[in-house]
Please model this.
Amino acid sequence: MVRSLDMTALRSFVAVSESGGVTKAAGFLNLTQSAVSMQLKRLEQSLDLKLLSRSGRGVVLTGEGEQLLGYARRMLALNDEVFARLTHDAYEGEIVMGVPHDIVYPAIPQVLKCFNCEYPRMKMRLVSSFTKDLRKKFERGQCDMILTTEDSLEPGGETLTNLQLVWIGAPDGVCWKNRPLPLAYEHDCIFRPGVQRKLDQAGIPWDVVVESDSTRTIEASVSADLAVHTILKGMEPPYVEQIDHQGALPELTTKQINLYVSDLAKGQAVDDLVDYIRRAYEGL
Model:
């Protein structure tokens, strides 16, 4: 009797194998964890083999699973090639990219424009949030790639550029001369603790007078000369400017803009998008 392997189950098996866990694979495949687990169970039952073994917080392949993985990758590649050739859907799909809100401009619009021209049938979904939140989404498989602003590089990433953190305020504003220094920050801003430490070390009293989850609220408050803020040089939003404080405020550190791409995000479209991102941020 001829038996056939379930391609959907094979795709789940490969995704779990490459990501190291059901949770991340489910996020990438846009399925529930229970659906992925059920597909894996059906695959094991159809072959009457144990393919995966749970170890700690992840999963590892059994000997039989390692053998199947090579076959599964080739079968999926051939399946995708057939659909691409015969239906002309070679570059349809969706890529989810996470970017911190304060480094979207000026690079990301340029990236999206170039990518859309090259791959007009690919859907790009942009997720804008704080670095901490984006890292969590990436770990859960909810983003194919993320950009972060960090002090150091985590394993699996690459640093695109290093930029100076600078003080910004209202055009011709004067509130930066006030003491305590009025600050405006989002609750989860990754720059906030380090900036406050710098002020403490310089002996400059400060007060967070505007606190919000909305970046627009922070920008509006700063542009109204109610408070000052910090941002990576070259990323200043409209209606604010870098403060020429002549040493009255402490010099701030540099930050890395890092890129992380999921092991499950593969293909020419992903490679080209990564290349566009690299060039856009290196150009800053």
Observations:
- The first strand starts at residue 52 and ends at 55.
- The chain has nine helices and eleven strands.
- The chain has a mean pLDDT of 91.
- The chain has three domains: 7-87, 93-158+256-282, 163-254.
